[in-house]
Amino acid sequence: MTKIVKQLGPGLLFAGAAIGVSHLVQSTRAGADFGLGLVWALILVTLCKYPFFQYGPRYAAATGESLLDGYKKLGKGTLIMYYLLSLGTMFVIQMAVTIVTAGIASSLFYEFAPTKIASISLNSVQIWSVIILAVCLSLLLFGKYKLLDHLIKIIIVTLSISTIVAVIMALFNNNTSLSLTQVLPKNSIEIAFLIAFMGWMPGPLDISVWHSLWTLEKKKTQETLSTKSALFDFNVGYISTIILGMCFVLLGALVMYSSGATFSSAASVFASQLIDMYTSSLGNWAYIIIGVAAFTTMFSTTLTTLDASPRSMDRTSELLLNKPFKFGYLFWIILLCLGTIYIFLFLGSEMGLLIKIATILSFITAPFYAIINYALISGKFTPKEWRPSVALHILSWIGILFLLGFSIWYLTTL
């Protein structure tokens, strides 16, 4: 058992990065607005995205290099496209996950802190955003990957237990039957939500690049990491994202469906609304459980994305310029922190709009990542024994068609 736990790492980091806005915000809203009517979308999108996420650790463990190295082999234009897409989204994504985390932290602090302390501006989302970024930055710069690897295991266990307990309690307190009738959104607002919901469920496809980089970092600390163990680790993380996605849909459906509640786009107000609605339905005892589940959900995402984006941008820069940068990771992580704070100060009130833009952009760029990941893992740069099976080939084709089809459908409804 200990040996299995030691093998886990990149897959849980993947789960930590994926289980965030897509689960706490989008999945809860899916349950609140549609009941269990969008379960089909959750299952379908996680199934169709599965092979493309899996190709990250598969390629890294089989070849000893990241997907970014593989993208360069496919052609420098592919790597440049990745670089531009990442540069265009990394700040908004980091801002979106940080501001939701800060909103939850502010709400929890205001609830439990002594009155005199809470009366000062420490319940400000602005201050909490800076505090959270500073904490995450310190953990990553001083603890590096090894600390991140150990810390994420604690976070994911805490997140899983608190979320599952909340779902069980909600089920026990539920007096109405839930319909399993599935719904296909029709008007433009509902379609936009569906695309946003699937865009980050369980996460944007560029996480596959991050996963390949984490796999290589894991290899540095664990010499016996094989391709099979890397895939096992990925599957554990991926299944976790699906289970917890269902949990948050259930929570939204059990507590908020048909309540007529509307959510604020302001982070602190949204966090308070979310936690208060759970506690009003389940009882005051649920506040701390829901609060812990919500905070660990978003803190894990904030921490992992703050590590992954600079790591991937540093490696991309090295590959494009054909030279290593001693302080490349440090440069990118500081730039990301400063850029996130800058965007927050000027656009923080538009949290809802920014999340919507980021999630939709993730979905319509998903076919790009799907196609290049599939081309790389199926081609000559991957050892034959680790190329996809017939079943994975078929699922990949279906996934590419699905992602292309839904992207075109959405664009035609604008």
Descriptive account of the structure:
This protein has 414 residues and is mostly helical. The chain has one domain (2-102, 178-265, 302-413). The chain is built from 17 helices and no strands. The chain has helices at residues 2-7, 10-18, 21-34, 39-63, 67-74, 76-112, 115-119, 125-173, 188-199, 207-221, 227-255, 267-282, 286-321, 328-347, 351-364, 366-378, 390-413. Helix 4 (39-63) crosses helix 10 and helix 10 crosses helix 13 (286-321). The longest helix has 49 residues, at 125-173. The chain starts with a helix and ends with a helix. The mean pLDDT is 82.
Query: Structural class, from helix and strand content?
Result: mainly alpha
What percent of the residues sit in helical stretches (DSSP H or I)?
A: over 70%
Tell me the Rg in angstroms: 20 Å
- Provide the number of structural domains: 1
Q: What fraction strand?
A: under 5%
Report the principal-axis shape: globular
Averaged pLDDT: 82
What is the helix tally? Answer: 17
- Unreliable stretches (pLDDT < 50, length at least 5) are none
The SSE order reads HHHHHHHHHHHHHHHHH
Q: Could you tell me the number of beta strands?
A: 0
Largest sheet entry: none
N-C termini distance = 51 Å
